[in-house]
Amino acid sequence: MAVIHDDALALAADLTDLRRAIHADPEIGLDLPRTQRKVLDALDGLPLEIGTGASLTSVTAVLRGGKPGKTVLLRGDMDALPVTERTGLDYASKVDGVMHACGHDLHTAMLAGAARLLSARQQEIAGNVIFMFQPGEEGPGGGRIMVEEGVLDAAGERPVAAYALHVASGLLPSGLYASRTGTIMAAADTLHVTVKGRGGHGSQPHRAADPIPAACEIVLALQTMVTRQFDVFDPVVVTVGTFHAGTADNVIGDDAHFVATIRSFSPQARAAVQQSAPRLAREIASAHGLSCDAEFVDGYPVTVNDATEMSFAATTIADVLGDGRYVTAPNPLTGSEDFSYVLEQVPGAFVMMGACAAGTDPNTAPFNHSAEAVFDDSVLADGTALYAELALRRLAAG
Question: Of 4, 317, 358, 329, which Cα lies nearest the Cα of 173?
């Protein structure tokens, strides 16, 4: 409906003001009181049932339509990252060491804008819309906590569909949307390994039990494991990000410790690596006469788009924004998302949207999480209209 897009364009200045106010005043994690206040102020006066989280500063708003029908959920995350901004923007972060480097400020503004658009059409809506304003996507798992606190039941019945948009400061040209059926984002888990030896003098390793060679062997063996035990078309990625051992060149320490991130793209591969990686570490250590603590720590699950809802979202993008605005992503993204906790229980779609700054090449523009990542405010109206249309059209379909 062109009218909704026109109304979103009329909100563009307000959306930009809200987005930039959030950007200049970022917060990290599950406790975002200033951001929550900005959201509540933006929703003030709308015909919404509003609740806030018990153990996190979430906002859940329910719009009940004037006609009976199903329920749809729209998600926007609100938290920033521990990054020192280097964009030079006049609305850059005023909080030392904290930056909206992943574009969650845009998501929040677009979702608030969609609440305004849909509230103005309350009587024509056949069903309910849940607006999920979520803290803690960047690690603490705010999506999981909101699900545990009942966001999916906020309207009295489970949503029949759930949708989330995520901006990208690179890779995609501004205004282009991309996603795919099935896995769209990887699972992200962590492997903690401590190889325990016996310290001694570096000149006499035979009188000690050196943990470092065994730990190094484990690091290399993990790379071999993922190429020999996992299907190349259902891969696993293991990256050791930290490795700590020893105190001096001539001292054999008692232990060596490393931590790896493990990415997988199906529940089956994730379950398999959960068993094989710790076992490999323990058995290599044992072969060296050493002991080993190996712990697999669950992170975010695989983010999986429902085939029907993804097809519906792609069609809606074309109808609302025009042909050529959506492309099918050839592969999943190797990042992770806690919208996965919603999609484990509700069919839905997670869609990336290009927000590359004007005049920059998306192939070389600093990407999300960079201290130099810049997002184009001109996408705000389109994203707002798309959120609203996804809800309206899905509810009209019953």
Answer: 358
pLDDT at residue 364, rounded to an integer: 97
**Cα 253 from Cα 377, distance rounded (Å):** 53
Nearest to 132 by CA among 79, 78, 77, 75: 75
Q: How far apart are CA 168 and CA 362, in angstroms?
A: 9
Phi and psi angles of residue 141, each rounded to the nearest 5 degrees, phi first: 75, 45
What is the rounded (10 degree) CA torsion for 109, 110, 115, 116? 80
Q: Please give the pLDDT value at position 2.
A: 67
Residue indicated by tokens 């699972």: 187
Q: Give per-residue pLDDT as tens, 329-365.
A: 999 999 999 999 999 999 999 999 999 999 999 999 9
- Domain 2-184+302-397: CATH superfamily is Zn peptidases (3.40.630.10)
Structure tokens at 231: 């299907």
260: tokens are 């790896």
Q: Round to whole Å and give the CA distance between 316 and 95.
A: 38
96-123: pLDDT as tens digits:
999 999 999 999 999 999 999 999 999 9
Angle formed by the axes of helices 2-10 and 307-321, nearest 10°: 70
Q: Which two tokens stand for residue 105?
A: 């400020």
Q: Which residues of the chain have pLDDT under 50?
A: 1
Q: What is the CATH number of domain 187-300?
A: 3.30.70.360
